[in-house]
Specification:
Helix content is 51%, strand content 9%. By secondary structure, it is an alpha/beta fold.
Length: 344
């Protein structure tokens, strides 16, 4: 893993290299104390929204284990990885023989990440675990994100988790644990992580040397939902403008085809993968919020229609990404469906 990972956001630092972690002191203390006390589970499911530091925590804990292979002598607190330590250098360069990081592989032809973690990636874990550690140390497998595994990959991981090798730790990073097989979840220790409070989010951005725009700082912190990744999209990728455009399109009134096409052109442009995914996640959250508001207002029929739309759009987006369909048509269809359901 390196600074030029295809999915690394502008202004971000790779989790393998990031020395800073904010807002998760309780989780850090729990992991350090469980390890030192010999009570660590062989598989940890790190749950929480995207971009709040789950992967950074996973790499920090991996660094802790590999630097302190004897739990009885390990410190009772996790510390920031030391840049000059051999373990840190090996992890950061992807050269560690004791750590395997599995994520969506790069599609060489398309020049972007594939839509799923496949069984071939999980077979790498089987081969990795089948080899004797050169140092006799722990071996750590980080699956990031576990939600991206397809069915065959998930079943392959399940087989490993059913009979885990000795001195092996799996850390599954999950943005949506409900998407995982129940049998996988049942074999992992859940470690839920909360979105960052605004002071922690501001501190995390400052540590990245990201300057909050003076005119929109409060809007960014509020709209980011405690996620550093969301904040970076709002600051560097025009996220606030996309949010404003969506709200304008969803207002009741005459057709806004021109605005819809303008937004669709922006989201389907070359190298617009980040903003396209930002929009699809934003649209999904917006529908869920509207459905919840309708239910609380007693309009169960409208809430049910919006819930059905949410499921339909999730499937439509997955198909669009999986089969590399025309992004502009996908965006226009999403906007049409949302206007039809939310302005009725």
């Amino acid at each position: 893993m390196s600074e030029d990972s295809p999915d690394l956001l502008e202004g971000a630092v790779s989790p393998a290299l990031n020395p800073n972690l904010f807002g998760h002191g309780e989780a850090e203390a729990f992991l350090a104390e469980a390890y030192a006390g010999g009570k660590m589970h062989h598989a940890i499911l790190m749950e929480g929204p995207r971009g709040i530091g789950k992967s950074t925590l996973a790499f920090r804990f991996a660094n802790h284990l590999l630097r302190h292979p004897d739990p009885a002598r390990a410190p009772l607190a996790l510390t920031a990885p030391e840049p000059d330590h051999p373990v840190t250098r090996q992890i950061a360069s992807g050269a560690s023989h004791d750590l395997l990081h599995l994520t969506r592989p790069l599609d060489e032809k398309a020049g972007r990440l594939k839509s799923a973690i496949t069984v071939d990636e999980i077979r790498r874990a089987g081969k990795f675990l089948g080899q004797t550690s050169g140092t006799g140390n722990w071996r750590v497998v980080i699956i990031d994100a576990a939600d991206d595994m397809n069915r065959n990959a998930a079943n392959a991981v399940l087989k490993i988790l059913e009979e885990p090798p000795r001195r092996v730790l799996f850390m599954l990073v999950s943005h949506a644990p409900g998407k995982l097989l129940p049998t996988i979840r049942s074999r992992c220790m859940p470690l839920p992580l909360r979105p960052l409070a605004e002071p922690d989010l501001a501190a995390a951005l400052a540590a990245l040397d990201v300057t909050l725009p003076a005119a929109s700082a409060d809007r960014v912190l509020a709209a980011a939902g405690g996620s550093v990744a969301e904040a970076l999209k709002l600051i560097h990728y025009g996220g606030l403008d996309i949010m404003a455009a969506l709200e304008s399109i969803l207002k009741p009134g005459p057709s806004t085809r021109r605005e819809m096409h303008k937004l669709a052109d922006l989201l389907s442009a070359k190298d617009a993968e980040t903003v396209f995914l930002f929009f699809t996640e934003l649209a999904g959250r917006r529908i869920v919020e509207e459905a919840r508001a309708s239910a609380l207002a007693g309009d169960i029929g409208r809430a049910d229609r919006l819930a059905s739309l949410s499921q339909s759009l999730t499937e439509k987006i997955a198909i669009s990404i999986g089969y590399n369909l025309d992004r502009k048509q996908t965006v226009l269809q999403i906007l049409d469906d949302m206007r039809g359901a939310m302005t009725a």
